[in-house]
């Protein structure tokens, strides 16, 4: 399986401990001053390349509307007029709330379904389990674009075209969440399961009182990943909503095409569309990086 | 109930409970299916059944309107789609995208991870945190900010003007537009690649290099003969992911910035499916092309999984 290959969550956040660092030094040739400096130069350049566009987006948004074309590095004097303009022109507040609730629902349901399925796969060996597991793995090879016409027709038959519900339903179960969850569950100590069984607990109560409470970090990482993926999903909301101001992707897209080269306002709207995910990243960085890098999937 | 879990627990259950096994196993056998059921149901409803339907639609002529009839045309859609110049352009562009992203998500990350591996501790965590940011920026914002950076009065034009270079309108230039899309999506994927490769490196036990070093192997030899082979699972994984997903990564940016143009110069295979299906309302052509891409990528994935088994040097 392709995505099992990426290992070592420990190092994802760069928390290699010093002992390992020392051994590594021996392995790759000792740590030279020149090597360290080269490393810093490269990483600084890369970090600037990565962050500059995001910085520039907020910098442009924070200039006074008359200064929008300024190319000075610091936006000064600061002004919130662009944000006020966006706020008064489109219902950006309700777009943010709607998209937030939608992403929360999707993350929660995906997590719930993944917990159940992974528990079934990891704890029991049952007839057909290999085949059913293969269905989850194989779905990795079915690009959404190949199935989008039948999906669209089904949503249309359900009468959900143009609604947030129509955006939600096809995404309720995430195969990747299931696969990642199976990995975590298989690593769960058997002894605890057996002890719970000796206590006379049913499998259902074992799941919620023994397994789930002991997997909080993994669940948090998966939940956050589900939320961010739902927030950043573009294709399906664009197809189902077409226009309208209900969801941030579609609403901001309309705003961008209406405002054209009004750079201050477009950057303010674009910035607002990223703020929730960036805030999650600031506060929960370790979970975010762990989840995406371990899964290797968006 | 864990009666059927595994040998040891079965034995435990046997001693703990005197009821005949047969009667207890039957309900337990159903239990795992119940847990798996919701996930499987959704998967069948939204992935596999639509896949079968796409396959079916590829043999019909239809315009997506429920009221208009479907006409069976056999393999005509496949014949037609194979001759479409748009399809050839889209495939060529997709190959360009894949090749370019192999650089952004694989080659550059490996080079960067190697050159930067002597930076450790807090600073490294800090850099990695910044490098990962573009991956999280939502597509509408990504396209908006890059349109601004590439604009006539934008930052890049200003810098180039300082160097005496006149920047054309990149998104209207049939030769440049595809490279603009590559830069934008490459910007998003680079940090992701760097972190995945760094994780791969961290998973390699340093003892091998250490031993080779004691035997007199130089840094270059260790890299070539030990580090890269041990990194091969990560490399194969990133390469496969790039090939399978490059067209998906570029989709939102294409839709938001170029709509496949100018003159189809930035379109890719998945954007083409969208245009066939939802702009031309030709479900037959879209489905036939979709089936071809699905099978093509399926073969590529199988080849890669085989490669991974053969080439990977697992570190036990």
UniProtKB/TrEMBL annotation, chain A:
<dbReference type="InterPro" id="IPR000515">
    <property type="entry name" value="MetI-like"/>
</dbReference>
<keyword id="KW-0812">Transmembrane</keyword>
<feature type="transmembrane region" description="Helical">
    <location>
        <begin position="207"/>
        <end position="231"/>
    </location>
</feature>
<feature type="transmembrane region" description="Helical">
    <location>
        <begin position="263"/>
        <end position="284"/>
    </location>
</feature>
<keyword id="KW-0813">Transport</keyword>
<protein>
    <submittedName>
        <fullName>Carbohydrate ABC transporter permease</fullName>
    </submittedName>
</protein>
<keyword id="KW-1133">Transmembrane helix</keyword>
<feature type="transmembrane region" description="Helical">
    <location>
        <begin position="34"/>
        <end position="56"/>
    </location>
</feature>
<feature type="transmembrane region" description="Helical">
    <location>
        <begin position="160"/>
        <end position="182"/>
    </location>
</feature>
<comment type="similarity">
    <text>Belongs to the binding-protein-dependent transport system permease family.</text>
</comment>
<dbReference type="InterPro" id="IPR035906">
    <property type="entry name" value="MetI-like_sf"/>
</dbReference>
<feature type="transmembrane region" description="Helical">
    <location>
        <begin position="99"/>
        <end position="124"/>
    </location>
</feature>
<feature type="transmembrane region" description="Helical">
    <location>
        <begin position="131"/>
        <end position="154"/>
    </location>
</feature>
<feature type="domain" description="ABC transmembrane type-1">
    <location>
        <begin position="96"/>
        <end position="284"/>
    </location>
</feature>
<keyword id="KW-0472">Membrane</keyword>
<keyword id="KW-1003">Cell membrane</keyword>
<dbReference type="Pfam" id="PF00528">
    <property type="entry name" value="BPD_transp_1"/>
</dbReference>
């Amino acid at each position: 399986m392709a995505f099992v290959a990426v290992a070592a969550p420990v190092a994802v956040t760069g928390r290699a401990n010093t002992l390992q660092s020392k051994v590594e030094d021996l392995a790759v040739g000792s740590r030279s001053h020149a090597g360290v400096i080269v490393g810093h130069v490269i990483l600084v350049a890369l970090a600037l390349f990565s962050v500059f566009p995001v910085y520039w987006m907020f910098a442009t948004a924070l200039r006074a509307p008359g200064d929008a074309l300024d190319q000075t590095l610091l936006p000064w004097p600061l002004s919130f007029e662009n944000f006020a303009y966006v706020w008064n022109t489109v219902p950006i507040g309700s777009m943010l709330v709607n998209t937030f609730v939608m992403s929360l629902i999707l993350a929660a349901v995906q997590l719930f379904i993944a917990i159940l399925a992974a528990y079934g796969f990891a704890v029991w060996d049952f007839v057909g389990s290999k085949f059913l597991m293969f269905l989850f793995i194989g779905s990795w090879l079915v690009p959404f674009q190949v199935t989008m016409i039948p999906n669209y027709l089904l949503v249309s038959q359900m009468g959900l075209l143009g609604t947030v519900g129509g955006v939600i339903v096809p995404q309720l179960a995430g195969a990747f969440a299931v696969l990642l969850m199976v990995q975590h569950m298989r690593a769960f100590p058997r002894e605890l399961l057996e002890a719970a069984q000796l206590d006379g607990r049913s499998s259902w109560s074992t799941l919620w009182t023994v397994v789930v409470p002991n997997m909080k970090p993994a669940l948090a990482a998966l939940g956050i990943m589900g939320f961010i993926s739902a927030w950043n999903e573009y294709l399906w909301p664009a197809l189902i909503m077409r226009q309208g101001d209900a969801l941030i992707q579609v609403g901001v897209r309309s705003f961008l095409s209406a405002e054209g080269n009004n750079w201050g306002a477009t950057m303010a709207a674009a910035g607002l569309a990223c703020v929730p995910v960036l805030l999650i990243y600031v506060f929960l960085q370790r979970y975010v990086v762990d989840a995406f890098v371990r899964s290797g999937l968006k | 109930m864990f009666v059927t879990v595994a040998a040891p627990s079965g034995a435990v259950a046997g001693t703990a409970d005197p009821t005949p096994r047969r009667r207890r196993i039957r309900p337990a056998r159903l239990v795992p299916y119940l847990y798996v059921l919701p996930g499987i149901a959704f998967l069948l409803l939204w992935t596999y059944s639509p896949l079968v339907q796409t396959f079916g639609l590829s043999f019909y002529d239809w315009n997506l309107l429920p009221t208009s009839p479907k006409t069976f045309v056999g393999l005509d859609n496949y014949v037609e789609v194979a001759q479409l110049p748009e399809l050839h352009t889209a495939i060529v562009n997709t190959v360009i995208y894949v090749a370019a992203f192999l650089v952004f998500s694989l080659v550059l990350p490996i080079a960067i991870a190697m050159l930067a591996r002597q930076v450790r501790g807090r600073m490294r965590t800090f850099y990695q945190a910044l490098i990962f940011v573009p991956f999280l920026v939502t597509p509408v914002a990504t396209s908006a900010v890059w349109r601004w950076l590439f604009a006539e009065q934008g930052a890049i034009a200003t810098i180039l003007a300082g160097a005496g270079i006149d920047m054309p309108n990149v998104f209207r230039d049939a030769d440049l537009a595809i490279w603009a899309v590559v830069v934008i999506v490459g910007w998003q994927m680079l940090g992701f690649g760097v972190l995945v490769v760094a994780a791969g490196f961290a998973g390699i036990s340093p003892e091998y290099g250490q031993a080779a070093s004691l035997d007199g192997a130089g840094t270059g030899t260790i890299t070539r003969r030990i580090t890269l082979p041990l990194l091969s699972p990560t490399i194969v994984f990133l390469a496969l992911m790039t090939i399978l997903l490059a067209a998906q990564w570029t989709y939102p940016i294409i839709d938001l910035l170029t709509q496949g143009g100018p003159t189809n110069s930035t379109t890719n295979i998945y954007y083409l499916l969208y245009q066939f299906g939802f702009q031309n309302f030709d479900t037959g052509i879209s489905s036939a092309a979709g089936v071809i891409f699905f099978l093509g990528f399926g073969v590529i994935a199988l080849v890669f999984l085989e490669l991974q088994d053969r080439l990977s040097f697992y570190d036990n």
